Amino acid sequence: MAPIISRGFRGRRDDAPSDRVPPGQYVTRDFPVLSAGPTPHTPLEQWDFSIVGEVDEPRRWTWEEFRALPSEEVTVDIHCVTKWSKLDTVWRGVSVDTLLDGLETAAKYVVQFCDGGYTTNLPLEDVTRGKAWLAFGYDGEPLEPEHGGPARMLVPHLYFWKSAKWVRGLRLTATDELGFWEANGYHNYGDPWREQRYWGD
Amino acid sequence: MARAAVLGRLTWRVADVVDVVPETPHVKTIAFDVPGWPGHRAGQHVDIRLTAEDGYQAQRSYSIASAPDGTRVVLTVERLDAGEVSPYLTDELRPGDQIELRGPVGGYFVWEPAQGGPLLLVAGGSGVVPLMAMIRARDAAGSDAETRLLLSSRGWDDVIYRDELERLGGDGLRVVHTLTRSRPPGWTGYTRRVDAEMLADIGPGPAERPRVYVCGPTPFVEAVAEVLVRLEHDPQAIKTERFGPTGG
Amino acid sequence: MDPLMLDGNAVAGLLREVFAVEMTTAIGTCGNCGATEPVGAVHVFRGAGVVMRCPHCDNALVTIVKDDKRVWIGFPGIRALEVTV
Fold first, then answer.
1. Looking at the whole model, is its pTM more than 0.90?
2. Which residues of B, range 174-193, sit inside 8 Å of C by Cβ?
3. Which of A3, A24, A120, A158 is disulfide-compatible with A179, CB 3.0–4.6 A?
4. Which residues contact B69 (CB under 8 A, 6 or more apart)?
5. Strand pairing partners for B178?
């Protein structure tokens, strides 16, 4: 049975040029808060960010050390697998290239790990060469906890579950290790332009 | 009848709007006729689905406000300004319009008159909706089960079902209000958030082994459930339903 | 306590679609802490998909990912489910 159309229902959607909206997505001006678990509240004095795994020397930054790194403002479109896209979002963060600068590794993959236990996996090349940031600011303000603050990953070329909130580090791995959603039904790579939402897509 | 309601095949059904009635400045009651409706139990809810002309869909859950009554299904919806669905339901829907709904769903947060009392019902704002279904079912069954409804609202004009609750009071049902933000002149009732002292005053206490149902926004439910456990109510006798964004 | 959190009642319809019986009264045993609770009482979060968590230890019990025709149910942390049929 075809769904019944409800007279006059539109939903909260914006029009947008179609070349900026991946297939199956709708543009929103809101910033929906979606979370796999309770919002962590790690005090900044206890926060750190680490690069571990297949590296000769693990790296670690305290919050002060992290904030002393060069950062940049970037404007990107973000696409959530739950079908909303938000255009021209403005973030401030440290490029992952800066975090990995000079690091020796044979690893091909990386796992983002977070407060609360969430993980997501990517090829290492998808977070390097200007494709990813460790973001601490959104829309000119410090990133709020409900959106992943104090710091989250920002990997805008993939569905937004690949940009982990409350991230605490990157683990470089030789083999691809499935993260939380990748192990439970979502696509391993997650390219919105090829609509890679689910297993088998 | 109840068993059929639990096991009936869950399909999307067409629901015809019969009536739209304001309850408070932000809340409306919408009565639907749902051909083929298998019946429901008080406390259950429905999932509704709205489809736009271009195929865009939104889905939400709403508690059924009415006692079982043939193919009639009544929802009470609070309009959230930032919402995607509630403004449509409260501003747009007219008799003759159609939406889709499926249900009834829910087996945990239900009460049937045959289960008896005493009942302690604690509601925050629109959390009163499923509890009202229970009160209406109790009334329709002619039950005299000892029942207390503690209803927390922002102000007197925000109290949903205010007049009907006044009318139904008596015969074992007692309704107690607390108004947390504003009160009418001469108000002598509670004016604070639900707390241990209030619940202990209103009862029933744990010795009477009431069935307890708590419904409202998550922070309200969490706070009340915690207080009830501290007052030594049996945690297994406390059923909770948290309201919040149910889009999915 | 997270204000965005809901409980198993919020996914009753979704679970019924998948399991074909009412699931909020099913009793789950947490694989992490061993606590047992009805599904209606477990904590529910909406992320990219639905995550159901143990109200005692926050362990992720069940995940649900859905498109129009397929549902992926993950059981990362649930030991057993008791269902009345």
1. yes
2. none
3. A120
4. none
5. B152, B190
